[in-house]
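Query structure, 431 tokens:
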């Protein structure tokens, strides 16, 4: 190694050592997994951009030994990510149904009505708040992506285009707005300044108000090898242990927690003001204790995760190589963020996947970042009749298989890449 290379390596190691935790400020010295270099997962390309330079950033995930927050450095700013966002929540039928059930349950649990006020942070295209409208509960969505917010307004959901934090919370309170319910579904991971975000929640919340936050559970991510859910748009990954410390830091407390099947295994936490009358459910202490038993306070637990990701990469590539060597055809289903992490980490391009399809018209005619796989409408599968269909949004595999069961007519099989390669033959399921 020459002197210049040694100096570069030394500078990179110093930079890693000098990274501070975005929640508690401690020096970050431990790694969960290094997935190499990857472009931002929602940076889909148009045809005339394929010959242009793409920006790649490290996917080296770090762990805080003090508050256990799993995190990426902020390589890409939220303003860049959400200037024009490609993800519309309403294109997942099961996610909309999940959100409708939540609205009905929380309205009953909190006794919400015409005198209440519910606010959703990162409200996307109104997929959730639309279900409060027939229940007579006044709502407001806060969504930074203007293109997505327009879809919500068209549904009749009042939406404010802005980023949430202390600044906006103070502005809303000055306007006489305080919330009985604050909702944050899969937004906490996308906030680089956690302390500003949670401080804003504290300001906006009424004294007896409730906050519910949903996010993928780091315990499940590690147990089930969900390394592809790591991408630059997700700055942080949470355990209940971390949420408990984060809440206390801002005068909030955990009062309940539910384990959900969504996104490969999520938590829904309920927070209230520290001095409120809300009692704390036994589920909080039980899950905190379980996380400790499973080693989430031990850095050695996190350090062992990298091997799982490497093994999954080898297994998937070995399968794809063997299938292509047999002369079989493969396409993808979906173009989600997690899929782009998988494709780039495993270097899966059009040498393996002829194309992928997606229900979101915004992505049609575009190409996946990095690997440049063309994205087509769903009916492209019926036209091409591939032998194998790689399900990239594997968390929706049941929904997708149900929608696409007709592919069995020409003998197509589904491939699920996570936690390790699984081939689903519909003809065998029917026996």
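Result returned for the query:
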């Amino acid at each position: 190694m020459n002197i210049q290379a040694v100096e570069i390596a030394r500078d990179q190691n110093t930079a890693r050592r000098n990274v501070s935790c975005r929640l508690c400020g401690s020096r970050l010295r431990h790694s969960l997994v290094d997935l190499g270099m990857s472009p931002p997962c929602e940076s889909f390309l148009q045809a005339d951009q394929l010959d242009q330079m793409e920006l790649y950033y490290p996917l080296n995930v770090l762990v805080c030994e003090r508050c256990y927050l799993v995190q990426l450095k902020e390589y890409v700013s939220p303003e860049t990510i959400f200037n024009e966002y490609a993800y519309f929540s309403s294109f997942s039928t099961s996610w909309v149904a999940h959100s409708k059930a939540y609205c009905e349950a929380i309205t009953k649990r909190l006794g919400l009505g015409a005198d209440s006020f519910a606010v959703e942070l990162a409200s996307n295209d109104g997929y959730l708040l639309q279900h409060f409208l027939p229940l007579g509960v006044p709502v407001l969505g806060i969504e930074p992506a203007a293109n997505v917010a327009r879809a919500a307004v068209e549904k009749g959901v009042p939406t404010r285009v802005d980023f949430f934090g202390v600044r906006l919370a103070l502005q809303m309170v000055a306007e006489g707005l305080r919330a009985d319910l604050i909702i944050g579904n899969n937004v906490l991971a996308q906030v680089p300044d956690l302390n500003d975000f949670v401080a804003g929640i504290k300001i906006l919340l009424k004294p007896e108000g409730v906050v519910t936050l949903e996010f993928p559970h780091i315990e499940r991510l590690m147990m089930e090898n969900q390394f592809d859910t790591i991408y630059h748009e997700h700055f942080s990954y949470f355990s209940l242990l971390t949420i408990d410390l984060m809440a206390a830091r801002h005068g909030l407390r955990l009062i309940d927690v539910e384990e959900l099947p969504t996104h490969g295994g999520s938590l829904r936490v309920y927070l209230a003001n520290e001095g409120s009358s809300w009692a704390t459910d036994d589920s909080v202490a039980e899950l905190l204790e379980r996380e400790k038993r499973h080693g989430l306070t031990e850095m050695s637990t996190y350090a062992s995760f990298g091997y799982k990701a490497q093994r999954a990469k080898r297994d998937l590539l070995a399968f794809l190589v063997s299938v292509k060597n047999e002369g079989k055809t493969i396409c993808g289903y979906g173009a989600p963020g997690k899929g782009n992490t998988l494709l780039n980490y495993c270097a899966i391009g059009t040498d393996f996947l002829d194309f992928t399809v997606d229900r979101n018209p915004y992505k049609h005619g575009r190409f996946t970042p990095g690997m440049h796989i063309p994205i087509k409408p769903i009916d492209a599968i019926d036209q091409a009749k591939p032998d194998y269909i790689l399900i990239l949004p594997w968390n929706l595999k049941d929904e997708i298989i149900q929608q696409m069961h007709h592919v069995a007519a020409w003998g197509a099989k589904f491939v699920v890449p996570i936690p390790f390669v699984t081939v689903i033959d519909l003809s065998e399921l029917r026996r």
